[in-house]
Design goal:
By secondary structure, the chain is of the alpha/beta class. Helix content is about 40%, strand content about 20%. It has five helices and seven strands; from the N terminus they run αβαββββαβαβα. The strands form two sheets. The protein has a five-stranded parallel sheet with strand order 2-1-5-6-7, sandwiched between helices. It has a two-stranded antiparallel ribbon with strand order 3-4. Helix 4 links the parallel strand 6 and strand 7. It is globular. It starts with a helix and ends with a helix.
């Protein structure tokens, strides 16, 4: 995906679901990125199978439970879980505009599923770093 395409998506989207969201213990990458996205003006929706609240926000167990359209799915999970999350994203109506696997996360299986179904994806890149680089 080109910088211009990525910039356009980041400028247009409003809602970002963060899979693997947690704010305790503080200082972890997911905590910093989640807080950054909130400060940048996005509606951040935490997704975690156990937690009830993250960043003071209602946390959902899975993408299908989220009651509003999700524009970006941002994944903070080990690569072996990414294909399942890709399937969850592909099942959403409407579909997200982008599926993002954070820095250090690459999944050939998820990438194949997403590309084969026309859902753009980013892998092994930090959304916070790219947002700062492209928009600030």
């Amino acid at each position: 995906m080109s910088d211009a395409e990525l910039r356009k998506i980041l400028e247009q989207v409003k809602t970002i679901a963060v899979i693997g969201a947690k704010d305790d213990p503080p200082g972890q990458a997911v905590d910093g990125v989640g807080r950054y996205l909130i400060q940048a003006g996005y509606e951040v929706i935490p997704v975690h199978p156990v937690r009830q609240k993250v960043w003071g926000l209602t946390c959902y167990k899975e993408l299908a439970e989220i009651p509003v359209p999700v524009h970006v799915v941002n994944v903070f999970r080990a690569p072996e879980y990414c294909a399942q999350h890709a399937r969850e994203a592909l099942a959403l109506v409407p579909r997200p505009r982008l599926f993002w696997m954070q820095l250090g996360i690459k999944s050939p299986e998820a990438a194949s599923l997403l590309a084969g179904n026309g859902l753009p994806y980013v892998e092994n890149v930090c959304i916070m770093v790219e947002h700062r680089r492209l928009l600030w």
